[in-house]
Automatic annotation (TrEMBL):
SUPFAM superfamilies: Protein kinase-like (PK-like). InterPro entries: Kinase-like_dom_sf (IPR011009), MAPK (IPR050117), Prot_kinase_dom (IPR000719), Ser/Thr_kinase_AS (IPR008271). It comes from Lithocarpus litseifolius. Keywords: ATP-binding, Kinase, Nucleotide-binding, Phosphoprotein, Serine/threonine-protein kinase, Transferase. Its EC number is 2.7.11.22. It catalyses: L-threonyl-[protein] + ATP = O-phospho-L-threonyl-[protein] + ADP + H(+); L-seryl-[protein] + ATP = O-phospho-L-seryl-[protein] + ADP + H(+). Coiled coil: none annotated. It is an enzyme of class 2 (transferase). This is cyclin-dependent kinase. Belongs to the protein kinase superfamily. CMGC Ser/Thr protein kinase family. CDC2/CDKX subfamily. Residues 372-384 have a biased composition (Low complexity). Residues 372-393 are annotated as: Disordered.
Length: 393
C-alpha cells in the first residue's frame, strides 16, 4: 500500500471504508476500499462473493477493480475513481433533471444490470449511493451483497436499503430472483424525477404501507409459499387502499416514464420487465419518428404496376367555429391510372387536394379510397359530431 497516498475519506460503511488516493506510480487518482474484516490467510479473500463478481463482470457501466492488496492481514480493493454518486448528484441539484438526462442515466444502469444478470449475478443493493457518476457516465458499484443467480436459497432477509427493497423481501420471502434489482430500478427512476424517494418507509411495515398507498393492495395469491403475507393483512385490516394516480405524484414525468415505473414496481416479480426488456420500453425511444408516408399527390398516377401502399391524410380545422372540420382520408393502393384529382372540395378543408377513384366498381385490383369528414360542435370538442362516409363509384 506504500504505492498509494491516501488523500481523503469518501465514505464509511458496514463492510469497509472508501478513500480517495493517489497512485504514485501512474499519477492517477484511485478509490481504495479497506475492508473491516481481517484476513489471516491469502486464500480467504478468494471466497468473497464481491471479489468473484468484480473479477467476472467487465462492462463500461460497472465499476472496474484495478487490483487487490493484502497487507498486515488487511484487504484493500483498488478501484477506478469516480467523481460522486447519484445520491450526491440529486442532493446538490437546484432543479429537476430533464427527461433526457434521466433517460441517459437509466439506460446506462439497465445496460450494466443486463450484463450482470446475463453473467449470472444480481446486485441486491441497488440505490443511488451505489451508482457512481463522472460527468454523464454512470457505473454500478458496491457488490458486497451480490449473489449468483444460480445460488440456492434461503437468502438473507436484509438486503438493500429499505427504501429500495422489493416487496417480496419485505414480506420475508426466502427465495427471490433478479427481479428485486428491477424493483430498485423503478424506485430510482421515480426518484430521479422528484429528487426524493418515492417509498421512504420508516420501518419495514411502514415501507409496505407506503407502497400500498401508491400501488394499491396486491393480490395475495401472487406470492409464493413461505412469504409472510400476514404483514400485508395487518395493513389491509384498517382500510381499503386504492392505487394512487402516479402522474399526480410525479407530474413532471411523461406517460412513458410513468408506465415504465409502474411496470418495474409491480407487486408481482414475474411481471417486472428484465433489464433488456426495459431497454425496449417506449420511454427509451420517445424520439423515434415513423418513416413518413408518401403524399398521394406525389405518386406517379400512370404507374399501374406499383406495389400496394397505405396512405393516410388528416385535414386541419377551419379558422371559424362553424368551419371546425376534421377530415380523414384513407387510400389503399393509390396506384391506378384512372385516379381523378379534385381541388378545393370544401372551404372548411383549407384547400387540400383530395384524390378519388372512378370506375372501380367492378375492378377489385384497382384502388379504393374512402373519405370521412366530421363536423365538430366547437374547436375544443373532444368527441365527433355527425359524420358521413362515402365510397367512390
Amino acid at each position: 500500500m506504500e504505492r498509494y497516498k491516501i488523500l481523503e475519506e469518501l465514505g464509511d460503511g458496514t463492510c469497509g471504508s472508501v478513500y480517495k488516493a493517489w497512485d504514485k506510480q501512474t499519477g492517477e487518482i484511485v478509490a481504495v476500499k479497506k475492508l473491516k474484516r481481517k484476513f489471516y490467510f491469502w486464500q480467504e479473500h478468494t471466497k468473497l462473493r464481491e471479489l468473484r463478481a468484480l473479477r467476472k463482470l467487465n462492462h463500461p457501466n460497472i465499476i472496474k477493480l484495478n487490483e487487490v492488496v493484502r497487507e498486515n492481514n488487511e484487504l484493500f480493493f483498488i478501484f477506478e475513481y469516480m467523481d460522486c454518486n447519484l445520491y450526491q448528484l440529486m442532493r446538490d441539484r437546484k432543479s429537476s433533471f430533464s427527461e433526457e438526462e434521466i433517460r441517459n442515466f437509466m439506460s446506462q444502469l439497465l445496460h450494466g444490470l443486463n450484463h450482470m444478470h446475463r453473467d449470472g449475478y444480481f446486485h441486491r443493493d441497488l440505490k443511488p449511493e451505489n451508482l457512481l457518476v463522472t460527468n454523464d457516465l454512470l457505473k454500478i458499484a458496491d457488490f458486497g451483497l451480490a449473489r449468483e443467480v444460480s445460488s440456492m436459497g434461503p437468502y438473507t432477509e436484509y438486503v438493500s436499503t429499505r427504501w429500495y427493497r422489493a416487496p417480496e423481501v419485505l414480506l420475508q420471502s426466502s427465495s427471490y430472483t433478479p427481479a428485486v434489482d428491477m424493483w430498485a430500478v423503478g424506485a430510482i427512476l421515480a426518484e430521479l424525477f422528484t429528487l426524493s424517494p418515492i417509498f421512504p418507509g420508516k420501518s419495514e411495515i411502514d415501507q409496505l404501507c407506503k407502497i400500498c398507498n401508491i400501488l394499491g393492495m396486491p393480490d395475495l395469491t401472487i406470492f409464493p409459499e413461505g412469504t409472510n403475507t400476514s404483514r400485508l393483512l395487518g395493513i389491509f385490516s384498517y382500510e381499503e387502499i386504492s392505487a394512487a394516480n402516479l402522474s399526480d405524484i410525479i407530474p413532471n414525468a411523461s406517460s412513458e416514464a410513468i408506465d415504465l415505473i409502474l411496470g418495474l414496481c409491480s407487486w408481482d416479480p414475474s411481471k417486472r420487465p428484465a433489464a433488456d426488456e426495459a431497454l425496449q420500453h417506449p420511454f427509451f425511444h420517445v424520439g423515434w419518428v415513423p418513416y413518413p408516408l408518401r403524399d398521394p399527390l406525389e405518386l406517379k398516377l400512370s404507374n399501374t404496376g406499383a406495389k400496394p401502399n397505405l396512405e393516410l391524410n388528416l385535414w386541419g380545422f377551419g379558422h371559424e367555429p362553424e368551419d371546425c372540420f376534421l377530415g380523414l382520408t384513407l387510400a389503399v393502393k393509390p396506384s391506378a391510372s384512372n385516379l381523378e384529382v379534385l381541388h378545393n372540395v370544401s372551404q372548411g378543408m383549407m384547400g387540400e387536394d383530395i384524390l378519388f377513384c372512378s370506375g372501380l366498381k367492378d375492378d377489385s385490383d384497382q384502388s379504393v379510397k374512402f373519405s370521412q369528414s366530421s363536423l365538430l360542435p366547437s374547436p375544443f370538442a373532444p368527441s365527433l359530431g355527425q359524420s358521413t362516409m362515402s365510397q367512390s363509384d
